[in-house]
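Hey, can you fold this one?
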Amino acid sequence: MAVVHAAPGAESRLARALTTDFCPWANRFVYWLKEPIGWFVLATAISVMIGMYFSPIGWTLAASLSSIIVVGMSWPFVAVHATRLGLQPGCDAVHEDTSCRIIVSVTNRFPIPVLGLVIEGYLDSDVGERVPTVGLACVPPLCVAEYSLTVMPQLRGHYPITKPQVTCSFPFGIWTARRALKQIRPLTVWPKVYPVTGICPLVGKNNADVGDGQRGGRSGDFVGVRQFRRGDSAKQVNWVASARSDSLIITERGGPQSVDLELWIDTRGDKGREPLARRVRVAASVLVSLHQSRLPTRLKIGDHWIKYSNDGHGRRVFLDALARIAADGVTCQRNAFQSNACQRSGTSSAVRIDVTGASDGGVLVRIIHPSGGRRAGGSVREIRIMPHDDISTAIANLWREVRDVDVAA
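Sure. Predicted structure:
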C-alpha cells in the first residue's frame, strides 16, 4: 500500500507524485542512506571505481573519505564504551510543568577527555522519537563526577517509557554510537492540578468528617430532643428535660454527611493528545478537591475501576493511575459507566461526575444526580471548558457553580 504524505487539496499532480511512496517494499534496502555514514560509504565506493577505471585522483578521494569514516565511527564507539553514566531524579514523582532536579553520574575510564556524550530517551513520550535529555560537552579524563540539572516534564506518564541510551556522534556527526543506560531510576509525572476553591457541597446519608447537613446519631452537634426509644444509651438522656416532662427525653445529635460519589474519566483520544491532557488535568483537580474534602469517591478511568483510600497513600494511588493513561488515549465505552455503576451499587442514587470531551475539543464536566426531587438535586449540572479557556480560572469556582445541588435525603 502506498504511503501518501498529507498535502492540501489544491496541490498539483506533480506535488502529489513527488510526495508519494510508490515502492514501500524497497525502503528496507535504502534505509541505511538515512545515516550520513551511508552516503560516505557510497561516495568511497564511487571514488574507488573512479580510481580503478578513470583517474588516480579517485584513490585520493577514497583515502580521505575512508579516514573520515574511520575516525567518525571509532571515536564515538570508544567514547560510549569507555564511560559509565547513571541518571536519577531528585524525587520519585512530580506534577506536570513543575521543575525537577536530575542527577547525572559520570565515570570516565579513558585517559583523555570525552566529548559529545548525550543521554536520549528518558523523558520521551513517543516510542521511536529520541530527544536529548542530558548533554555533556566535555568529561575530564579519569574522573568520577556528578552533574545536577533542572528539567520540567510537560506530559504525564511513568518515565522512561523506552530504554534510555547513551549516544555520541562526535566529531563529525556521520555516525551515532549507542549503548543502553543501565544505572537509572524511574520518574512519575502526575497530571497538573489546579486549585478548586471551597468544599464540595454535595451531602447525603453517609457520615463524614466534613460536609453540610446533619445525620442523627450519638455524636456531633446538637440537633434537638426526642422521646426515649428502646436501645438508646443512658448517656444520651437529657435529665433536665426528662424531669420537666416526667418521661425520658433523649438528646439528638448529628454530624456532617456526604453523598456517594462516582467519578468517570473519558480516556478516548480521538480529538487529539492535548484535549485528552486537559481532560485528565481537570479530572485530577476535581479528585484532589474531593480527596481534600474527605468525600469517599469511586473512580473509573475508562473501563477500569480504581480503588484508593481516603488518605495520603490514596492520593498517590489515583494520581499514579491518571499518569498511566496513554498520551494518545485508550478506547472505552461511552455509556459503560452508568450501567456498571448500577450493577455495583444496585441502585442509581449515587451522584456521578463525568469528565468527558466536547465535540469542539473542550472539556465537559457533568454533575449528575439521577433521582430525587428539585431540592434533592434531580438534575444535571454542566461546566464547559472551551479549548482556549484557562483551566485554572474555569475550575476554580467549580463547587460554587453547583452549591445549590442538595442531595440530602
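The longest helix spans residues 57-81. Let me know if you want another pass with a different chain boundary.
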